[in-house]
Amino acid sequence: MPARIVDASFVTSASKIEEAPPEGIGEVVFLGRSNVGKSSLLNSLTHRKGLAKKSATPGKTRLINYFDVTYKEDETGEKYRIHFVDLPGFGYAKVSKSMKYEWQRSLNAFIKNRRTIRLFVHLRDARHPNERIDDEVRDYIATFIGPDQCYLEVFTKSDKLNQKELGALLRDHPGALVVSNLKKRGIEKLERLIFDIVIKGAPCP
After folding, report:
1. What is the pTM of this model?
2. C-alpha–C-alpha distance, residues 39 and 84, integer Å
3. Looking at CB atoms within 10 Å, which of 29, 138, 160, 203 has the fewest?
4. pLDDT of the residue at 100
5. 161 contacts: CB under 8 Å, gap ≥ 6
6. Cα separation of 196 and 204, whole Å?
7. What's the pLDDT score for residue 88?
8. In the prediction, which pLDDT does 27 show?
9. Shortest CA distance to 32 belongs to which of 49, 13, 52, 50?
């Protein structure tokens, strides 16, 4: 692997853009429905089991969580810092349907105006690949994403699918990445992809 994550730590929680760290280093935003496995994926990516805390009540956390992540390039030994940004989950079934609109309102300023965001990682549940709310979020991001930003669909919990279902998923969502925290499927690929896009300026997949 040409580059890997060697360190990660929690920075701060912000309820609005004014409380976020100063803009500077590149940022990767992770967003998805509550209970999609976002915390587990962040922990797998950073090789830190307890870095991102899992809420006992999905959909409860309403804060933007910042993590400082260090990549090390194997060939040169050079280190690079980026921020992982964990956004509040949206659309949990046990709360009001208006939650997705509340989510859009509260985070609208952040995701639209934060110019150091280089990559949006949209997590979707592989068992429910065509949820309308996920399609709406994808389409919403497409309305404002800048030329220097990338969008990536990542389907979690792919270990729950058989080969036929997995094939259909990849056919219907070309360019998407499938991962499994349980089987560690796709984790290294995502880790490398983030580095290539955010640090090396690789084109969007």
Report:
1. 0.89
2. 12
3. 203
4. 53
5. 126, 127, 169
6. 10
7. 81
8. 97
9. 52
Which parts of the chain have pLDDT scores under 70?
Answer: 1, 54-61, 91-106
Alpha-carbon distance 116 to 129, whole Å?
29
Q: Judge whether 51 and 42 are in contact, CB under 8 Å.
A: yes
Which residues, in sequence order, are bridge partners of residue 80?
A: 71
Write the secondary structure of 131-146 as one string of H (helix), E (strand) and C (coil). Answer: CHHHHHHHHHHHCCCC
- Residue from 51, 48, 79, 49 nearest 67 by CA: 51
Say if CB 27 and CB 87 are below 8 A apart. Answer: no
Evaluate whether 116 touches 140 at the Cβ level (below 8 Å).
no
Q: What is the pLDDT of residues 48-105, one digit of tens each?
A: 988 987 655 444 457 889 999 999 999 999 999 999 999 887 754 444 556 556 556 6
Left (φ > 0), alpha (ψ -120 to 50) or beta: where does 47 sit?
A: left
Task: Give the domain ranges of the chain.
Answer: 3-198
